[in-house]
Structure formats: C-alpha cells, structure tokens
Amino acid sequence: MADIGEQAMEVDKQPIKDQQQAPAARTYELPWVEKYRPQFVRDVVGNVDAVARLQVIAEEGNMPNIILSGPPGTGKTTSILAVARQLLGPSLKDAVLELNASDDRGIDVVRNKIKMFAQKKVTLPPGRHKIVILDEADSMTSGAQQALRRTMEIYSNTTRFALACNTSTKVIEPIQSRCAIVRFTKVSDADILARLQVVIAKEGLSTTKDGLEAIIFTADGDMRQALNNLQATHTGFGDITADAVFKVCDQPHPVLVQKMLADCASANLGEAYKGMKALCDMGYSAIDIITTVYRVARNAEGMTEFLKLEFMREIGFTHMRIGDGVNSRLQMSGMLAKLCKLALASSSG
C-alpha cells in the first residue's frame, strides 16, 4: 500500500515540475525600438543640427535647462537619456529623475518629489548636475508648471531640467524663457531607410523594395513607428512586402488613393466616388482616408504645380472638418466634387 501511495505522489508531482520548467523555456523578444535604441548622442538618427548641439553639451558637460520640442518618434527622449548617460556615467541611477506622462505630475509631485530630488546630495564629477527629465511636458497642468518654474531657479546650482514635448507653446512662457529650446523635426525618409537597413541586416530579414517603401510611407517621419511596423510585419508575415505592411498597419493602400486622385484630376467624379466608397466599405474611417489622401497628393506626379496646390488646399479644409468631428461620407463626396471642379477649371483655363 505504501508503494502505491508513493507512486501516486510521484505522478502528482510530475506535472508541477513541468509547469515550473515551461516558463523558463519560453523566451520573449525585446521590441526592436528598445533593442536598437541609440546609447550615445552621436548615434541618434536625423535632426543633425539638434543632435550636434546636444553632442557639444554631452562632451563639455555644461548643460542648461532645455526644452526638446518636436513630433513623436523623432528621438527627443532617446537624445536626452543619451546626454544624461554620457554626462553622469555610473551615477546615472542616483542623479536622474525621469517622470513620464503616465506618472502623476500634478502640483503636489512638483512640490514634493521633484523638490526632494533637487535637495538630495549626490556625489558627481566636477561640473556635472543632477538631471530631471519630464517627458510629455506639454500635458502637465498649468499649476504644476507654475510650481516648477520657481523650483528651477532655486536649485539651478545643482539640478538641471530637460523637458520633452510635442509643442513647446503648451509649456508656459516663464519656463520657456528659462530654457534653451532644441527643435526636432520629422526624420527624413533617407535617414529612416538607412536605419531600417541596419536593423534588417542584423535581424537577417527578407525584404522587397516596395515593402521598405511601404514601411517608410506608413511611418511618415516617425522612426519609432517605422521600427514597430517592421517588427510587426516580420512577426505576422515573415517577408516584408507592401501588401503585408498595409495589412498590418491597416492603412488605405496608397495605390487605391492614387487612382482616386487621378480620376479627380481627369474630372471623372463617378469613378472617383466609386474608389472612395470602396475604401469606406473596407472599414477605413474618414480620418484614415483623408490622411492618406493628403500624403499621396503631396507626392503626386504628373499634375501641374498649380493644380496640386489647389488640390492640397481643398484636401486640407476637408481634413480640418473631419478633425473637428464632421466625419460623414458627405464631406468626402463634397471634397471629390470640388477637386473635379478644380480640374475642369484648370483644363479650360
């Protein structure tokens, strides 16, 4: 009886042992955005002038309070973390306080957490300062920003502030006047392509020319988006082809939009409406369609410069209305009619 009991216990134990081993065998891949994040300022892609200014700060060590302003995915946070890493070296953990938009950054946090950090004694190399990094600073409340400006002055001898934001105008003027503003712009297509090719070579991916063009088109100057789209397409489909990219990113195919604009340029409203209706029936929202229409029109070829400018103006007005919430199919139909009217006027003129 004892033997049977022991055997039963061993049988019961077996699955538990397997359960404990299973998670260890499974490995999760790091997102490529983190895996290939530049560690030094000189490795940041694009925005040559802004990166050059930050490189000088990283080498000389005299860091002012700075605002890094620009669209998402252009390297603002990466740049300031790289500067902090180069300036502080091993003291990075103790001498940097990073607060993101996801953290609570109300007036109490500025009065307590940031003030406590500014008062904290940290042994640093000569000429170096503690750094407070406030990401998405434009989403801080006005009260918190007002409390911050005094803190910036009082502790300027020991602590410097770096604020990253999408639009610097949402940061109150007293803080703007206390900071040097470094402006980032969208990363150029050539820079994105060069970086993608480095990642592709390291990961050993199979790509096509139109697949890479599709990734660059969907990214629209956002390096983070480009790497995420590349990884998502590789995970979902393996090979990087244009169709796979547009399926993963779920954006209207620019070839369909191009045909729709070509029909407008030849004043063929019926065909243009059919193209727009087909895109709507695929489930794309008005904002998705109008964004792609704008980007395709901006790069359109075979259209006179005057007509392209007139098209861009009408598309811009429609984009504004859809952005305000008037996103019915009627708006899109009206835009197509106006584009056809412009094409007729241009050909008769």
From TrEMBL:
It holds the Pfam family AAA. Residues 1-24 are annotated as: Disordered. Keywords: ATP-binding, DNA replication, Nucleotide-binding, Nucleus. The keyword DNA-binding does not apply. Its main location: nucleus. It comes from the Eukaryota. GO terms for cellular component: DNA replication factor C complex; nucleus. One of its GO terms (biological process) is DNA repair. GO terms for molecular function: ATP binding; ATP hydrolysis activity; DNA binding; DNA clamp loader activity. Residues 62-227 form the AAA+ ATPase domain. The keyword ATP-binding applies. It is found in: Nucleus. Belongs to the activator 1 small subunits family. PANTHER family: REPLICATION FACTOR C / DNA POLYMERASE III GAMMA-TAU SUBUNIT, REPLICATION FACTOR C SUBUNIT 2. NCBIfam families: PRK00440.1. Heterotetramer of subunits RFC2, RFC3, RFC4 and RFC5 that can form a complex with RFC1. This is Replication factor C subunit 2. It comes from Tetradesmus obliquus.
